[in-house]
Amino acid sequence: MGDFYTIRSKNDKISMQFHKKSLFILICLLLLTVVFFIISLSAGSSYIPVGAVFQELFSESDYTFILHELRMPRVIMGFLVGAGLGVSGLILQGMIRNPLGSPDIVGVTGGASVGAVLFIVFLLGEMSVNWLPLASIIGAAVTSAIIYLLSWSNGVTPMRLILIGIGISALTNAIVTMFMVSSESAIASKVYLWLTGSLYGANWQEVIILLPIILTLIFLSLFFTGIVNVKQLGDDIAIGMGVRVQFFRFLLLALSVALAGAAVSFAGGIAFVGLIAPHIARIILHKSFANLVVGSALIGSLIVMGADIIARTAFLPSDIPAGVFTAGIGAPFFIYLLYRNRKGFR
């Protein structure tokens, strides 16, 4: 075990292993995330010197309002959304054993969109925005249950799940569009901006709501490291070692759905992050689940933060939704995965 750092609780019920080489890569990813964080605060319609950004982090500066009230909530929101979608995709791909699995492709984020849009259209004037993540998670959970039930026929094959997920996703998009075109112009504009996957207008209230949800769910997923590592050997071996495979599969899928639902609740349909981030993590990191969780979270956050930097600077004075750029990268990547694994689907 010389290649691993092992973290165990006193009663050995919680055990996590971090590969030493992977730990170095994770530290590099964390440093790169800090670099993206600084660049995101500096770049925009008005450039702010990096020195002023560092000054603002420790005291007030001449750019306090722009940095603290406009850009910092947006950057932190991008980090949280990317991390949540990255880990959600990692769990989903592992549990359904499908390299094409991601919350947006399988239809989970489509269900979250329906829940969020229904809340915006019917309840936002009567209830606090604090309930928006819950509405989004409920929508994702109901849709996931429908997809799984429709996919079941003496088991669930990857291709059947993907095809039904794509069909349900199209249906949820139609439902959302119907509510959008039949609503008042102000609500329709808000829904449209949300659907494109934009971090525009993120504020501290939303960050404070989302921060504990995303971090808690990612932290909880780390508790399943030992179980997932054993399950990778196969269900039969895991059952022989006393693992309640179906029970823990349900818990992990619930975590994935909750992460996806919470992540899109404020930022909207930022696509393909849950597909790309886990694949990159598997390429550069050891396959231990703890490594992949942290790696997928950091890579997902880098993708969203990077897309938002481009969105805010490439087409000034326009502010393009970040979801446009993640889709531009993710769609070709999805086609490549579909082509590479075409013989493996039944």
Describe this structure in words.
With 346 residues, the chain is mainly α. The chain is built from 15 helices and two strands. The chain has a two-stranded antiparallel ribbon with strand order 1-2. A hairpin with a 6-residue loop joins strand 1 and strand 2. The two termini are 38 Å apart. The mean pLDDT is 82.
Q: What share of residues are in beta strands?
A: under 5%
Strand order of the largest sheet: 1-2
* Radius of gyration computed on alpha carbons: 20 Å
The largest sheet is: 2 strands, antiparallel
Number of helices: 15
Terminal Cα span? 38 Å
**SSE class:** mainly alpha
**Overall mean confidence score, pLDDT:** 82
User: Rough shape?
Assistant: globular
Stretches where pLDDT falls below 50 for ≥5 residues?
none
User: What order do the helices and strands follow?
Assistant: EEHHHHHHHHHHHHHHH
Give the helix proportion (percent range): over 70%
Q: Give me the count of strands.
A: 2
Write the layout of secondary structure elements.
Layout (H helix, E strand, L loop, with lengths): L3 E5 L6 E5 H23 L7 H9 L5 H33 L6 H4 L1 H16 L8 H20 L6 H24 L3 H11 L8 H19 L2 H7 L3 H6 L4 H23 L5 H12 L4 H25 L8 H19 L6
Antiparallel strand pairs: 1-2
Primary descriptors:
346 residues; two-stranded antiparallel ribbon; 15 helices; 3% strand; globular
Summarize the structure.
By secondary structure, the protein is mainly alpha-helical. 73% of the residues lie in helices and 3% in strands.
